[in-house]
Specification:
The complex is a heterodimer of chains A (222) and B (197). Chain A is of the alpha/beta class and 222 residues long. Helix content of chain A is 41%, strand content 23%. Chain A has eight helices and twelve strands. In chain A, helix 2 packs parallel to helix 3 and helix 6 packs across helix 8. Chain A starts with a strand and ends with a strand. Helix content of chain B is 52%, strand content 19%. In chain B, helix 5 runs antiparallel to helix 6. With 197 residues, chain B is of the alpha+beta class. Classes of the chains: A alpha/beta (222), B alpha+beta (197).
Chain lengths: 222, 197
Amino acid sequence: MKLLLAEDTRDLNRAVTAILKHEGFEVDSAYDGEEALSFLTAGSYDGIILDIMMPKVSGIEVLTSLRKMNDSTPVLLLTAKAEVDDRVSGLDAGADDYLTKPFAMKELLARIRSMLRRRTRYSAEELHFEGLSLRSESLELAAENSVRLSMKEFELMRLLITNPDKELSTEFILNQLWAGEPDAGADTVYLYISYLRGKLKAVDANVRIEGNRGGSFRLTKA
Amino acid sequence: MSETSIYGSHLPELNNTMNTILTEVTAVRQELTEKTGSDPVEHLLSRIKSEESMREKCRRKGLPETEHSALADIHDAIGIRVVCSFIDDVYTIRDRLTAIPGFTVVDEKDYIKKCKPNGYRSLHMILRSDNGFYAEIQLRTISMDVWAALEHHMRYKKQVNGNLPLLTSELKRCADELASTDLSMQTIRDMILEEGA
């Protein structure tokens, strides 16, 4: 499981990072909102912990632009005790949970576990990328033509369309979509990628999925 | 048989024209069966439009019931339907039929690439022989064929019980799901052939 931590207080950032790593998470640490955004543009995470009060770009702004990019990765906000309005606007901007500072490390870990377990993924009814649309209510993939996807195909397409132009490793995809299914492997991911390639072609979409069996895949403009 | 056929004395030529096209389909089937080990065609239907339905079509279109209407204005005196196992087979056969010597493609509508609003999928083609006879060819996969059969049944049933808009949109959904399954089956087949190569 890979997490992004964005916290400008250096000591707190170092301490939390060390503890999360000790708990077995992979962690990228950002020290301001701008750095958090550049991590988010480059990679994908299973969960994100954002401090609201950060220099350059605030946690709320990071969250807002994340959701604007269709990214539905769970987000936990860290807020100061007095900032009720911040907590409200954070939750309204698409945060999954918040924790007020100062907090007990035990509680932070419990909230992260709960957030990852629930994976209550913030989801838009209809997702778009380069003229391609994916409708969650009907599992319909449409461009010039339309087809209905199976549940797994839909989930994979949603993962790709909410992470446009990002490299998603086979391992990350397996972890997101086939967690707890020991029989699933690189071939499973590749087969589903191949299904989607055939279907993107059939709807005459202007996008394609780059990547090879076992490697990373990326949804991009054709 | 009526003494004066709407096709005049051209019935033998219509049959010859139809047989030329069918011979080409048979040739592709044999070649692909030898190459891949499986027949690309599930079933093949052909017919010369009956006297009665040709006359009925003339009346419906407001055309006089003449040889000219039947052979020049209406283009499906000869009708051929090729039902294939896989989508790629549809296009392989299409390519071969468009290249038969002595024929030109006068019209092609690809409702697979862009389906009709009701969900209908099929590839339609009108061929014209150099001696002036037309043939309408429909190419589709088995699942497209199954869907078309049900849709036809619903459309021509005098009284459809139930909620027609709902049934229509459900049929469209089925068409899109079948199309999706067709593509998945093609992908699986490609992988099997790839692994075996």
